[in-house]
Please model this.
Amino acid sequence: MDNPRILSALSYFSVLFAPFFLPIIVYFVSQDSEVKYHAKKSLISHIIPVVLLVILFISIFSSFMPFTTGYNEQPTLWMAVGPLILIGIYMLVYVIVMVWNIVQGIKVLR
Model:
């Protein structure tokens, strides 16, 4: 195997051990345009769950803020079930991104 394919595959497999650091390092260190392409693609796929996690935290913490309900008002169904639905969506997206990265890493190695 040649080094560009290994570096490209490691960028994808880094979702298991160093999600952001390795693709960034590979992107800036490598001179090969194909390796840079795969490093950038894997970095973007590593960022997707982080963005979704930020949205999840904002929505969960905003649903527990005291200004969302008055003193006499009962919590809505969304306040009770909404965060659980968002956590489920996050977990699904994270698994999909992880599997996609592993599949892409295997494809690059072939």
